[in-house]
Design brief:
This protein is α+β, with helices and mostly antiparallel strands. The protein is 15% helix and 37% strand. The radius of gyration is 27 Å and the shape is globular. Residues 34-80 form the F-box domain.
């Protein structure tokens, strides 16, 4: 009888037999017959490509014209959207623009939590089909759901582009010459709309561009209170566009379909000195404002709109953060604006290169660090944008 022996896992692995190469080995696979694969129906090929990860498919766009054209194919976009897992976008940036840095944009990478060392140039954002003659005076106005909206004063038009898909559309203004007080860019899965307020000869009018019909519509009868808040865009919430007005402070709504302007049926908190609206794009509308007397804010609070149309207080800005923010805007609340970005409520000022933001999930306030690429001395004009590139945002 042979004695029993104990082998270590390493010794056991050494005793395993080596499997010979078979036809199942990739090295022995037969070559693909081009005569067969070239006759594959286009719908089957698109179905196979729809299962590729977005990053892999973007790398394939340069291989042939057909793959590049799929980016603009509604049928392929629908297939890829349904095949791809519903995970958050892997690209999430805060984009900083300033008049001193014409056609250069600084990017804060929210995934890495740091500023990118290289600035983003306008040539990388705007597709090549936009002529170079437009670029010298091209100004970024707004961003929404992966789309960017620029003004092209030299041609009296707007430019809407998808920087990831490299697609664009030049939209002529409704009249010439055309000067506007404020612009709101609203993008949805079904298209986008551009809302602009213009001071005409004797009144203020609104123009709305609808991407579905590619035309403008004019609405009259607006008061001067809306044009006074030109630094802050309107907030699109449940089919209506909401604005806050300066003294007397109120919330008004505008129906983009019917053009009906009305006052929101909600009472603002008492002793409020300024108000800004922001939405998560789905089900919640927030109000951030100052509390004080005689036009001077002593505190800043955050409210959420309740089901009954009442504002429920949910947070107070920490005292030291509030004092710093009030000091950098010199109590000039017209310079303040806010927007939503990936679970954050960002509060900004045109005179300051930092963002005070509220992390909704953690219920905490933070300062976004200043971009190190900026010079020590700067002037007014800082404009931040939420920039989340989206391949399927159609122009």
């Amino acid at each position: 009888m042979k004695p029993k022996t104990s082998l270590s896992p390493l010794k056991i692995a050494e005793y395993r037999p080596v499997m010979p190469y078979t036809l199942n080995s990739p090295a022995n696979w037969p070559e693909m017959d081009p005569g067969i694969w070239s006759r594959m129906p286009a719908e089957i090929l698109e179905h196979i490509l729809s299962f590729l990860p977005l990053k892999t498919f973007l790398n394939l766009r340069s291989t042939c014209k057909h793959f590049r054209s799929l980016v603009f194919s509604p049928s392929f976009i629908a297939k890829h959207s349904s095949s791809s897992p519903s995970t958050p976008s892997s690209f999430s940036f805060l984009l900083l623009a300033h008049p001193q840095f014409m056609h250069r944009f600084f990017l804060y990478d929210c995934n890495l939590g740091t500023w990118r060392s290289l600035a983003l140039t306008i040539s990388l954002l705007v597709p090549r089909d936009v002529t170079a003659a437009h670029l010298p005076c091209c100004t970024l106005l707004s961003s929404s759901n992966g789309l960017l909206c620029f003004s092209l004063p030299s041609s009296s038009s707007f430019l809407v582009c998808n920087s990831l898909a490299k697609s664009s559309r030049v939209i002529a203004t409704p009249c010439y010459p055309f000067s506007f007080e404020s612009l709101t860019f609203v993008s949805t899965p079904c298209g986008y709309k551009i809302f602009v307020l213009c001071c005409m000869s004797t009144s203020i009018s609104a123009f709305v561009y609808d991407s579905k019909i590619h035309s403008w519509q004019r609405f009259d009868g607006f008061g001067p209170n809306l044009s006074d808040s030109h630094h802050q865009e309107g907030v699109y919430f449940k089919g209506l566009l909401y604005f806050t007005t300066p003294e007397p402070i109120s919330v008004v709504s505008f129906d983009l379909e019917s053009g009906r302007l009305g006052r929101a049926n909600t009472d603002l908190p008492g002793e409020i000195t300024f108000a800004r609206l922001v939405t998560d794009g789905e089900s919640k509308l927030y109000l951030i404002g100052g509390i004080g007397r005689n036009g001077i804010s002593r505190a800043m609070k955050l409210w959420e709109l309740g089901d009954r149309g009442n504002w429920m207080e949910i947070q107070t800005v920490p005292e030291m953060m509030c004092k710093k923010f009030m000091s950098v805007c010199y109590y000039n609340y017209e310079r303040m604006y806010c927007f939503w970005h990936q679970g954050m409520i960002c509060l900004c000022c045109y005179t300051w290169p930092e963002i005070l933001y509220y992390k909704v999930s953690r219920r905490t306030w933070h300062w976004l660090p200043r971009c190190s690429s900026l010079p020590e001395k700067w002037s007014c004009g800082f404009r931040f944008f939420s920039f989340v590139p989206e391949l399927y945002a159609l122009v």
